[in-house]
Write a structure and sequence with these properties.
301 residues; alpha/beta; Arc Repressor Mutant, subunit A; D-Maltodextrin-Binding Protein, domain 2; 3 domains; 5-stranded mixed beta sheet; 3-stranded antiparallel beta sheet; 10 helices; 40% helix; DNA-binding; LysR family transcriptional regulator; DNA-binding transcription factor activity
Length: 301
Amino acid sequence: MKNWEAMEAFVEVVRQGSFSAAAIKLSVSASHISRLVTQLESELGSTLLFRTTRRIRLSEAGELYYQHCRGLPAALSSAEEVISSLNQAPIGAFKMTCATTFGERYIAPVMNDFLTTHPKIELDLHLTNRAVDLIEENYDLAIRMGAMKDSSLLSRRLCDRKEFLCASREYIDQFGMPHTLSELSKHKCLIGSKSHWLFQQNGQRKEVKVSSQWRSNSGLALLDAVKKGLGIAQLPDYYVQEEFDSGRLVPLLSQYQYPYSGVWLVYPKVHHPSPKLKAICDYLIDCFQDNAPFQPTQAYD
């Protein structure tokens, strides 16, 4: 961009046929246009224009330079118009990710509703239980659960969630019910993607490391194992609320229940968030506040 102003002045002189006409077009003085062109010729080491009192004429170098540069001012103006339009309306490609089950149950339906009124958004919704790298994998937005640890990312709280320790009635009939956190080591524990369970003890956050002979990164697989009496697991409310209501599962150690943790909208730090990022985040937050997808069962607190 070093010689942009001088190049623009040169192109306009050729188009208008004179320094004075170019100066009027660019709203500057004729002497300023002349200085810019002279400066450009000095930078390039070539004469671009032959000047007389009546007219200007392109040199061979000037003709070549003009042919290469004549479309650039218009291209810049077009690029600025495109960006201006992009900054005013939510349009274009948008790549986001979310945990599989939460995404299928709640995020996908909400995003599909959003797209009915924003048809110019090109959505790529990737559902996975893997913690993707937003920067390396070019994601615009991720929906994540629990505490946020990556300071290179920005976040907005989407909603609350609660995790319940639970087991089937068949398991409890056979192996009994734990009454303290220390008793968990005596039970068959089933774990998902995390090997620590979260509790609250004496008003403090407490993580308990769990050993298990059964593990899966699928919440639905974990839920199925609990329902079939294979052991105890800790699962989010949106997996187990219906099971509690029906009596198929029983909540355990409710006295150590950790209060609500967050579901977060997470995105890379940017100086100017795009309208599509802002519109999607605002829409998701509004939908979850107005119509929460799940309400934790109060009877087990």
